[in-house]
Amino acid sequence: MFSKTIIYNTMRKVFIKLLAIGLIGCIPTNIFANDTLTCQEAKAFFDNNKNDTIQIIDVRTPEEFAENHLFSAVNINYFDKNFDQLLGKLNKKSRYIIYCKNGGRSALTLAKMHSMGFQNVKHIKGGIEEWKRLGYKLE
Hints:
By secondary structure, this protein is an alpha/beta fold. The chain has helices spanning 4-23, 39-48, 62-67, 83-88, 104-115, 127-133; strands spanning 36-37, 55-58, 73-75, 96-99, 121-124. It is built from six helices and five strands, in the order H-E-H-E-H-E-H-E-H-E-H.
């Protein structure tokens, strides 16, 4: 059977991640207002800047990413134990658009990337669920 320590540590990690996701609703919406795109704004940007060098990052799980994702997106799993290190390997001077399922994980990632020194990061409000609701194309 599992030891009490293993069960405790696992439950603690799950609780902390759920708490972090739940607290996103407590972040004032104007903190990163200039770094938030609606799905309509993101689609217009993609349509008008096809040759632009911007990296699209999907912070959902690999299983969610495999179901569908935005064109040319790369997957960096928010729940990966090495998430911070994976973000740290990115070029801080590059431009990024991040998204997740509903906007919670990407908003947390946006704040994290800002704290790490990234200057050119935006996230898509409403995430891929809003993107799908609007009938926009996915891969």
